[in-house]
Amino acid sequence: MVTTQAAPPAYSSNTTAKTATTTDTTAADATKKTNISSDFETFLRMLTVQMQNQDPLNPVDSSDYAVQLATFSSVEQQVLTNDLLRGINDKVGGGNLGQLANWVGMEALVRAPVAYDGRPVNLRPEYADTADAAALVVRDASDALVARSTIPLGEKSIVWDGKDDTGAAYPNGVYKFSIESYQNGKVIDTATAQVYSAIQEARVSGNAILLRLSDGTEVDAELVTGLRSPD
């Protein structure tokens, strides 16, 4: 069964901040790559001039050139490594991995399955602009249909109580929620509903922060649109 909420629970959105951060980071990365390329071209020009102006009676040994090339390559790799580490630090709040620990135990608003444990599930539905009706579709972990319920079009927050029409509770487990939008009785759009799911782990993977949710799903932290303390 589905009920609606008069007012959705408060949550924080970080879309604007992420857009600005992404833009700044992209511009900075492009500048760094240009600088490295420019430095390498300068190094090659200097090496060429050195070769052209060497004493023909006492030429520079080829092994010296190899050492210079190896030294520049080593410095270049160190610069790129530092840039990568700096990017990871930016993603985790200035390098403070301890901040990620504050996310563990919180509930994240994401488009992901939910590990149902008998408590009501809060959902944030999204509808097609031209829809004249909507329904909540619930499926289990094997993608089998569990329930389909009509919901008021335009509701910003709804609650699935985990019970069927007779009042019997569905078994605990992983469930998927989607919103079907209808027009003139036909489905015109199906969108995964945003749900609050408990964060069990946060870790850095490459240049991204991954969150492991209570159902075992891993999502990029940038896909989280809100955080709240568990009830």
TrEMBL record:
A biological process from GO: bacterial-type flagellum organization
Biased segments, Low complexity type: 15-28
Source species, domain of life: Bacteria
Compositionally biased residues, Polar residues: 1-14
Domain FlgD/Vpr Ig-like: 118-183
Keywords for the protein's UniProt record, in alphabetical order: Bacterial flagellum biogenesis
Segments of this protein annotated with the region Disordered: 1-28
InterPro entries, A to Z: FlgD (IPR005648), FlgD/Vpr_Ig-like (IPR025965)
A UniProt-annotated Pfam family: FlgD_ig
Similarity remark: Belongs to the FlgD family.
Task performed by this protein: Required for flagellar hook formation. May act as a scaffolding protein.
Protein name (Swiss-Prot/TrEMBL): Basal-body rod modification protein FlgD
Organism: Puniceibacterium antarcticum
Taxonomic lineage from the root: Bacteria, Pseudomonadati, Pseudomonadota, Alphaproteobacteria, Rhodobacterales
